[in-house]
Amino acid sequence: MITMPETTVPTTPRGSRLPSWGRGVLWTALAVVMLTVTADLTGLPSITASSTVQAGVQLAVPILLAGLGGLWAERAGVVNIGLEGMMILGTWGAAWAGYHWGPVAAVIGGAVLGALGGLLHAVATVSFGVNHIVSGVAINLLGAGVAKYLSTLIFFPVSHNPRQSPRVEPFDTYSAQPLAGWLADLEQQQRYVLSDVAGVLRGLVSGVSPLTMLTVVLLVASYLLLWHTRFGLRLRSCGENPVAAESLGVNVYRQKYLAVIVSGALAGLGGAAMVLAPGQNGYLENQTNGRGYIGLAAMIFGNWRPGGLLGGAALFGYSDGLQTLTNGKTVLGLFYGVALFCWVIMLVQLFRKRWIMAGVAGVSGLVLYGIYLAVDDLPTELTAYLPHIVTIVVLAASAQRLRMPAADGLIYRRGQGS
Amino acid sequence: MTALRGKLLPPVLAIAFSALLCTIALLISGGSPGSALAAMVTQVGKGTTAVDIVNSATIYYLIGIAVAIGFKMNLFNIGVEGQYRIGAVAGAIVGGSTNLPPVLEPLLIIVTAMVAGAAYAAIPAILKVTRGVSEVITTIMLNALSIGIIALLISQRAFGVLNGNNIGTRNVPQSGWIPGISLGEHGTIFGFVVIAILAGVGYWVMLNRTRFGFELRASGESPTAATAGGVNAKRMIVIAMLLSGAIAGLTALPELLGRDHTYTQISPQGYGFTGIAVALLGRNNPGGIAFGALLWAFLDQSAVSLDNVGVPREIVTIMQGAIVLSVVVSYEVIRRLELAAEQRRVGRQLAAAAGGAA
Amino acid sequence: MSSPPVTAGGATEHPAVVLTGITKRFPGVVANSDIALTVRRGEVHALCGENGAGKSTLMKILYGMQQPDEGTIEVDGEQVRFKSPAEAIKAGIGMVHQHFMLADNLTVLENVVLGAESLHGIGRRARARVAELAGRTGLRVDPDVLIEQLGVADRQRVEILKVLYRGAKIIILDEPTAVLVPQEVDELFDTLRGMREQGFTFLFISHKLDEVRAIADSVTVIRRGTTVGTADPKSVTSRQLAEMMVGSELPSPETRDSTVTDRAVLTVAGLRLSAEDGSGRPVLDEIDLAVHAGEVVGIAGVEGNGQTELVEAIMGMRHADSGKVLLVDRDGKINDLTGQGTLKRREAGIGYVPEDRHRHGLLLTQSLWFNRILGFQTRKPTSTGRWLDVEGARADTRRIVERFDVRTPGIEVPAAALSGGNQQKLIVGRELSGEPVLLIASHPTRGVDVGAQALIWEQIKQARAEGLAVLLVSADLDELIGLSDTIKVMLRGRLVADADPATVTPEDLGSAMTGAGVAGGESE
């Protein structure tokens, strides 16, 4: 009987939109198609070579774990720029435990040391109300310092190098046989398009470390936990409106502590993943080289969602893999691919009648294509920083459509609502 | 003076706490905290250590101020690391390829370095105001990228020359050097210390006596109130970032113009993070940053003595990290306590006044 | 130990809530002192008192958000001590806060079950339970919409659903009508009456006496932190209640003589502004407005209908899509402010009292004189352009403290140390300095004590008499009617009706604010 003059009707055109998993599939397919086309048109097969993709996966794992750590903390409202420091602690912890007791211990050791870093961040930001960025930066300094000290103290006598640990036994890797073998055949046949797709898929299913599988499990588990359980609801409510959450009997401090500690543990796992990565053989000073920050960027790119984070990590991992394994020419080939991508966006935007966006995309595509035509090779000094450049470009392109948790980064004091 | 107590107590607490932490770390690893401290303190009197401390502090002070300009308005320019190195390499390249008379030559180098530092800081500033990208991430990425850019610039394909087995820029001509203050066997203090002091004084005046300083502080305290008060947030971000980058550009010049005269692959890195630490320690105040810079320089320079007493000198990095973390915590706690105390005091005084009037 | 024997009104059962001797001190103030309150089961018990009398503190104590320094709480005859809201909830107490405690980016269902997941999970059973409660009480809301898409009345329903979901039998409503228009208030009261029949007990906090008389079964008045007495709303008059609340004559916002001139100071033409969410939905739609020298133009409207945006667009804090803003200064020079920044607009002679003084008006940890400079950083007497004039700022702050009766021990204390009323007086004093031609005042007396309210009204009237043009936005309809020379009603981003404050009643305004009265055009 009661009719409200201001009753709001949800106006989102839900029916016309794909569910989020559908969009994920679409984007993945699109990415594979773009890469395939680029590889064929530029005559640069390493763009879709299984080795590139495989390296990309391995490099994406630490980024994904760090980003997942960022997701946990920021969904609870704590900005965690200290991921890098926690990751560094994780590398030391993994190397130390791994050297003594093998790879499984390394995983645990990395997570524990990372969690300690997270605990420190939680104490500073949650209990003492320090600015989250300030505390994060301090933890990065402290993490680097502690790892350096402990490395000198404990690794030096064994490895005779203060910057390096003794060799740590990595995990065995697994391939999904017979699928991987079959894809390998296909890739080697050099068939148009088909071989490229096979290369990408083979890179995904062969040489997979248990840690990679664990990472995938953690990603899915985080999604289910954060979005489909009461624990997750409480945790997210702390990132959206902690005052309301507390008024409903949610222990905001405890949720935030838990989230930030888990965040640190995940970052530490990311560190362990670096220590255990093939060809690493243990702890190395400055090994993380800013991957904690890139993980954070991947999470922002992913709009504080696990699916988007996966996309971001894949992007950064792939570009890292490409620059590690190939030369400036191949990286340049990617410009061509991105130009194609820009033009696809332009078409989509034209279709949606968003003229300005379409114009921007079209011009960006032209500029990239121009660079591709004009330059022969990219200096290797710069291609090493491809992931960093990609981070900046991607954030600049996407920052405005993002929505972070409403109370992210705000200092919350218990009883603040009163 | 409660205000003074609020300023001095946090760093004292933080240093005490960090010292305690390091003591425990040392005891666990079987070292002797007492002898370590004694070694570090006596080291100051030895050789050129005292002068080295002043010289390092000069550098730390400049970059600390660069950081503080941004921090004062909650603009987290983590990118001073990249900005100072880009500034230095630009200054070195220009200095190495020109030969103006004295005074003009160093001036040219200084201006070049500041412009280059500011230009590199302009990227995150522009991205922030036009695209809303957090400056924290972009500056961190640009720090990494700066390594690549510098490697490219001083490669032999570009401006680099081979000097022994080290690649670097061409030497700055003697007319571009800034003479130091020689203290004989104790070493030579960089002449640039004068410029650092001037920068500090300028920073104080800017903060406390200019409209720009007011707007900077207002933006840091409450961006919303600043906007309502007519402060143009975007303009502030750009100016503060450029200024921060320009001051950061000065950082490596004491070494470039006073000692090394060339910028090479192995020129010192990492001052950026020291700058952040020093700014946090000094709570973005010109006096506090000076104190922080000297403390940091003391820890860095005296650490060599630890090897003599069988303590890994890396303990100092733990000490430094712990100081930063505990100082930000104690500043926050004491700020809160003081504000509550102030509110109580005002309440009491008004109640007393009302009682007296009634 | 000294729980006094309580005799409930004839019945054998215990009263729902008994508060005895509650005292709560904050730094420098005693918020509650020796409060006694008895609430019978199944009644709507109103708690009255002016702003700052200590009503909210008392309710926070009952809800476990704060702990009393002295005194006892009994619920259903048992003495309790709540250390947190969770414990109060367990005892069957629920609270609907004045400022909604909702997470915008979560759905209605998520907001309702948050913190009470153990009752029915977060899935299908929870949904069924919410639907059942909604059916029983008439509080219908789509459980799957995000809160950010809801209007104020719907949000309030969610708030009430939240406490019902937790099994609350005793519900505290903290100024529930402050954000509602009269028609919505009536609907709320209907809901409350229905729920009272079902045995719910309500503690209704308000300072609107007619509403109290309309809904309450009994009323307790609080003044300066202590209970003055309990009355039967059926027999007591609003006048008597008001005198219990204030202890003396009520201040009145009314202005006597018209000082309106025909010189338009502010002219807004065709102002349009789109929502920030990128949907292109207009939040301001073709606004035309003129404010003359010596005139107070009041803007009435339910919160969220574009008043905030209008003010911020005129101040240059938001960039309008189209439209003109012109300001005529004292010498008759026309300044086209369209496209200018906030500072330029302030320099042209606009003073601005923002609706949220903590977010937009003050730098809380800075000294009073530092706050004096804000907005005046380019003008005398606080600045000479590029350089600050610290001494000038100090001197002028002393003048404001004196003239506007800002109660402070000095000008060096941080703004946060002052009470809300004194902070607001400082802001009004600041914004009236520098000879503004136009004052934009958003809710200028919201949340301030009666003394500050009277002073602020007096200062606005005085400035108006001297030829100041005033644009007044307020949710307090009495204030609007009392102060304004013209009232314009805002609805969904448009100015939909004009009203003459000499004849219009709050009910008429309420109709126009919800769109019900638009058909009638000019009310009365």
3D architecture notes:
The complex is a heterotrimer of chains A (418), B (358) and C (524). Chain A has one domain (26-173, 208-327, 377-401): ABC transporter involved in vitamin B12 uptake, BtuC. In chain A, 71% of the residues lie in helices and 0% in strands. Chain A contains 17 helices and no strands. Chain B folds into 2 domains: 58-311, no CATH class; 314-346. Chain B has helices at residues 2-28, 33-43, 49-71, 80-97, 104-131, 135-153, 192-209, 211-221, 223-228, 233-250, 253-260, 271-281, 286-302, 315-357; strands at residues 161-163, 166-168, 181-182, 188-189. With 358 residues, chain B is an all-alpha fold. The longest helix of chain C has 16 residues, at 182-197. Chain C has 18 helices and 20 strands. In chain C, a hairpin with a 7-residue loop joins strand 11 and strand 12. With 524 residues, chain C is α/β, with parallel strands linked by helices. The radius of gyration of chain C is 24 Å and the shape is globular. Chain C has 2 domains: 17-246, P-loop containing nucleotide triphosphate hydrolases (Rossmann fold, 3-Layer(aba) Sandwich); 264-363 and 435-520, P-loop containing nucleotide triphosphate hydrolases (Rossmann fold, 3-Layer(aba) Sandwich), CATH 3.40.50.300. Classes of the chains: A mainly alpha (418), B mainly alpha (358), C alpha/beta (524). The interface between A and B is large, with 48 and 47 residues. Chain C: One of its GO terms (molecular function) is ATP binding.
